[in-house]
Amino acid sequence: MNCRSEVLEVTVEARQVEEAMLALLHTILLHRSSGKFHYKKEGTYSIGTVGTLDIDCDFIDFTFVRVSSEELDRVIRKAVSEFKDALSSDGMGQISLEFYQKKKSRWPFSDECIPWEVWSIKVNVVNLANEQERQICREKVGEKLGEKVINVVEVINRHEYLPKMPTQSDVDNVFDTSLKDVQPYLYKITYQITDSLGTSVSTTMRRLIKDTLAL
Amino acid sequence: MAHFDTEYQRLEASYSDSPPGEENLLMHVPEGAKSQWHHIENLDLFFQRVYNLHQKNGFTCMLLGEIFELVQLLFVVGFTVFLANCVDYDILFANKFVNHTDSSKVTLPDAFLPVDVCSARIRENAFVIFVLIISGVFWLHRLVKFIYNVCCYWEIRSFYINALKMTMSELPYATWQEVQARIVEIQKEHQICIHKKELTELDIYHRILRFKNYMVAMVNKSLLPVRFRLPGLGESVFYTRGLKYNFELIFFWGPGSLFENEWSLKSEYKRGGNRLELADKLASRILWIGIANLLLCPVILVWQILYAFFSYTEVIKREPGSLGARCWSLYGRCYLRHFNELDHELMSRLSKGYKPASKYMNCFLSPLLTVVAKNVAFFAGSLLAVLIALTIYDEDVLSVEHVLSSITLLGVCITVCRSFIPDKHMVFCPEQLLRVILAHIHYMPDHWQGNAHRYETRDQFSQLFQYKAVFILEELISPVVTPIILIFCLRRKSLEIIDFFRNFTVEVIGVGDTCSFAQMDIRQHGHPAWMSAGKTEASIYQQAEDGKTELSLMHFAITNPQWQPPQETTHFISQLKERVHREATSDTHPLSLSESEPRSLIANLLVGPSTLTSIHFGGDSSLTNHAAAGSSDGASALRSLSPISSSLHLRGSLSAAHRAPGHTSTMSKAMAGSGTDARTVSSGSSVWEGQLTSLVLSEYASTEMSIHALYMHELHKQQSRGELSRHTWHRQDSDESSDSIPDEVRSEPNPHSRHFPRSHTFPTTVPSPSAIPTSASAISGTTFGQEGASSHSSSQQRYSGSTTDSFSAGGQVVRSARGVPMGGWAEDGQAAPRHHDTLPEESSEDDMPPHIHKIT
What we know:
A: alpha+beta, four-stranded mixed sheet, 5 helices, 10 strands, globular, B: mainly alpha, two-stranded antiparallel sheet
């Protein structure tokens, strides 16, 4: 609960799913990434630069900006294509991008991952009958995505909680330092097909155990 | 593309990311790792633990307490088994002689059976093994829980020490309000909650009490099946820990419960669309849980017996009288609890009310029993006297068989009898006692007032305040009764439950889904008969019963003076405070306090209810006489409720203190003055908070709340009576209609008028409401009394879904209205349901008053 959650909803055609998702995820990640930190002595650091790249979509009249990091792009693309494959040609799905930070805990417990911001993108896939409709859809989706991007920027511009800048030892708890050229906040991409929102058995069991243990 | 010839050339110099000159400018200093307390994942649990640790007086106390509990448990089980199986009682009772030749004395180890015999005996006894296994499992469960808790609370301990800057040794002496103030303080620095810059007190309360608030609201709206009409026993309440556990399991956290996690209701339950489906699902889940309960019944039963045995035998042994003592029942705790009231606040309130409450119950000793007890005590006493006299003469009498035991038995017999003999010096004044009780417990169905001396009232009060023995007995039969209640009663209510959770859940940013009643919003849940007339927009379905919203609001505002309520709420609070203040000060004014006719409400609070009629319905000389007589009692009543009020006199900070000596001529004046003092001091507490510690503040707060509660109840009574004669049609279907009985009626011998159904939580059957002569509501005459009654019963039926209906006409209204869904969220998608959307049938009833005429 102790995290912000933002929901974006888009309605697209099946072939547009991948690009639309990439556009939104990359837009968010662009604002949630920073250059690599170079720690110096006396506990200070300097931040490296991040390049940006304009990407034109093939199936949508839309251009978005992403971090010019091939590695990051590869990771995102992989997640999105998995989502796209799982999504049937005419159905609902939700992909969420969750930013979290790790909290070290003592021995018997594993490290906690505590999310602080979750972006859920709900996708509604439609089938279109003819080329003319597709053409209209192409423009419409482009406009919609533009709105969403503005939306994202508005949310990000609010002065809200962000994890504090870490010291060198903690940097792995806040940022994803596995990439060479860019350093986004720790994130996780998950997806869900259809909106069966029932809690899974495992979470229920975990809660049951936790509750019996609780005072 | 890459081969254009341009002037632009790649710089050969080796450069890092930032230009050489700026390296020093672009240095950053990391700020992390200063605190580990920012952004806590599960704030609900976190705050609960912070609260628990505070209540348990710090980490060490908690640790030691838990360790000893574990050891104790082990000891009790082991010792019981040992006593049952490994002792040769024949040797102890000297029925069998030990073949010791060297010494004539029997030693204790002689009575022990050898280990192999002992273990063989245990192994043969299946029941003992069963008990041992269950207690073993229980103990292991406790052990694991203990270890888990130690780990969790260690973290909380370091939170207290590092973030809140409180050591464990000073924790027992810090009030919760102080701890809370620090939490609010450090939120600014650490951002425990990431949604808001600042936490409010209400946020913390909401998180700690999220589910409890739901339970309170459900009891308030009579949603939970805890009242039963049993043949022979009359109406009774059955609400045990086991039942409560099951309710919570079903609603809040069990598998497939309505809540997704601690803080959010599942989204499908927020939509009204498929409520019937969801209700079916819930019903079948309740059925399954009921069946599981039924299957596990023997295990739980043994568990309960063991538990009761372990927890109570020691107490009973130590003081046998404690079984006769009473305690606040579980239902009472739910019924009397304010929204957003923490455990310790409730407990301190109820503990203060304990003495007057037990006094009140003692007023009702059965005269028949008294006669019997007196005589039994006489005979037993004479036997005892003879035996004791003989013993004193020659102590060899003691060695005669069973003399010692008969002395003990006779002693116990006399003690028991004595408890049935009323105190010679006790005065029968239930009305005033009830008033003092009300000052502490803050809630009371309206029909109790003026009927305090009646047995029905006593019986109903005993539902809140039951014998401890009954409490234990109920706990013991609970495993058998719980599945029956779940399967047959709760299952029927599944639709209402679904509707309740949908209509009364709001999502608050930074808190999650909470019960909307707990927002204490007068506009949405106020009851027009409880001072929020004109401010409230709630339909009857949305109104909290018994003025719960208003009283809770006052309670919360008084206990948390720093809390900044929303605009309208502030207005309400300040208005009420001002009114109480005005009434109080006008009372201390020497001129207005003419003894014959006290004008102010505070004076009435002290004097008793009977004078109220004299104020608003013209001075009745006989009643004012009564008032003068009762004033001293009332004064002592208030004194007992606020022992600090006299000390407040001494503070000399208020001019009232100077005036007080001048008024000591009459008791009531002085007490009224001191009452004012207490109140003004405490209401000025926000100004003083720098000087006063919060402990002192909270003491004042409880007195202030008592006075406000009394005032509100009094005003409620007047208001609802006055309102009736003013607008006869508008509010007839609200349940204040039963208030239409003015006080004069109460003095009439008609028994029907006495227990008129007043509140949803205390529905009583009224054999024939048409028999009520309503002299005050002369405008509408007798018919109105009927309307009020029948429409009231209809509203009660609709929402509490009680199966009994004594009004067939009312029942018809219900059935026509019942089909309409109360889907607040379904239609408009608003978080806060508006009453027109929610309850279309309400307006239709409002618009057509003659409609009810036809029915009656």
